[in-house]
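Exam revision sheet. Question 4 asks you to relate a sequence to its structure. Input first:
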Amino acid sequence: MAVDVEIIVGDSRKVLASFPERTFQCCITSPPYWGLRDYGIEGQIGAEPTLERYLEDLVAIFREVRRVLRNDGTLWLNVGDSYTSGNRGWRDPDKKNPARGMSYRPPNPTGLKDKELIGIPWRIALALQADGWYLRSDVIWYKPNCQPESVKDRPTRSHEYVFLLSKNEDYFYDSDGSKEPTTTRGQLRNRRTVWSINTEASKEAHFAMFPPSLVKLCMVAGSPEKSKIIDPFFGAGTVGVVAQELGRGCIGIELKPEYAEIARKRIASAAVQTTLFSQRSSLESA
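Answer key, structure tokens:
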């Protein structure tokens, strides 16, 4: 089924304000993590000089998201954690991960020491809860193929969080469509809160992408077919690719034009592959 996927290049803080209330069924997104990437764009989210300013910016953006969601809408928010920088002002690039290099590093947040885990995901979740969101679930995204770390004084991180938040107490949630298999063949159960999903590399961009299978779980649970999805941090466009596959409309907002172009190409390529598969299936059944 053909659906519309629109990409808007711009600052989500401004673009979201242009939409009427109750436009979208669901928001699935992963904002830039604080102090971990330099996207080279002035005013970028994640490059705030303080953790407090980062939280304030995200709360303001997701307040607009809540406004444009339907009354039964949900927000599926993926975010990872980070450690204090030790007040270093830069970071070298990595051969395996060129985007790791940064010309700036934020100072340690007030009250935190060197080498401390900041707890950013929960700080965001609790800030959104305080701003009016219903915090409904914390999902652990376990990454079996996580990137190795050379640390010798703590475990290697192999998970991130996906928070389910709702606009109101009652909201759309497809529990039947999102069920998972049990150890008994043919039986299903309500989906648990630990999702084991591999990360997926991108040949087009040197940054982490949503795995489509992760996005698909959120989209199936959070929206019916033919509904409309919003992603205010579109990146390489995985939410749009999955929306197209599942028969949902989608609007993605991306600040960096180069990433918007990557997203456009991925979505166009996925559409061609879907059409070819549909045609092949029709011929095989004829």
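Marking note for examiners. DSSP finds six helices and ten strands in the chain.
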